[in-house]
Amino acid sequence: MLTVYGCANTRSTRVVWALEEANADYQYVPVDVRAGAGNQPDYLALNAAGKVPTLVDSGFILTESAAICTYIADRFADAHLIPAVGTHERATCHQWCYFAMAELEQPLWTMAKHRFALPRAHRVPAILDTARWEFAGAVNILAASLGHRPFILGAQFSVADILIGHTLAWAHAWELPLKDEHVQAYAARLWERPALDRAQRREQAESGLAS
Question: Which of 28, 86, 156, 189 has the most crowded CB, counting CB atoms within 10 A?
Answer without folding.
Answer: 28
